[in-house]
Amino acid sequence: MSSTGRKGGSKHRSPFLIAVLVALAVLLAGHPASAWQPAGGIVWSAEPFFEGIVKFGEWLPIRVILSNQGADRSVEVHATLASAEGQATYVQPVELPAGAHKQVTLYVMPSSFSRRLRLSLMEGSEELEHTTVELHPISYQALLVGIVAQDPDALSALRTISIRGGSPRAIAFDIDGVPDRVAGLGSFDVLVFNDVDTSQLSPAQRQALTGWVHVGGHLILGGGPSAALTTAGLPTELLPVTLDGTQTVQALPGLTDIAGEPVRVSGPFVVARSGVNSGAVMAEQDGVPLIVE
Known about the structure:
The protein is mainly beta. Helices cover 8% and strands 41% of the residues. It is elongated, with a radius of gyration of 21 Å.
């Protein structure tokens, strides 16, 4: 399913929803490991969401994990990067009782020439430790696709599609990598969820997804045998269909008609049966919707 929106740009698209009711293959890339830094009884690590990829003018979440192995502490995480005015620093206070283990997320807005983010662990005016993370700003015109899926090997075909004169850039991440604020999703044009348990999403993550859809983001949901799992934790306003089990078909001429090319994988195929709540059926077969927008 999907809806669209784009904040801060000159283009505005009407919101819409898409449900893909046949099995959807996706490719997951590995997450870079982040190094743990010791800091006077506090062990901490930091890494950017989305491999550090962010569009110009959008916010990038930074995940920081802290573990206090000593006495109670009150610290701040400072994130500093280059800006047109010189430097910009973002601050996140963190209370760390003895034995505490916490995860916090900072939101930063890199400039077009930001390539590194300096993160400092501060206690008062004293810097306990610092580290850097790599940033990869990209053009606002680039088509960026986020993939949240179980299968790590399947969506290689996505990289061969030509859109806007080029291929989309795809970033894979897990459920935990979905930000808890709309602003954290601003770089993405499309999000694809397939064969993942969305009931694991927190209320804040669900709200962020809903808000992103309302401002123009395209959310695509895979179907097939895992359709119920993929839609389990999503708000009903994001679901253009109501699922009613699955059925098996030997071929998918309904997809061939809309794609203009034959499906090159042999059947049988498991298709999610559904009733349409809203939107339009873009492809169907023997009365069964395959794609609903």
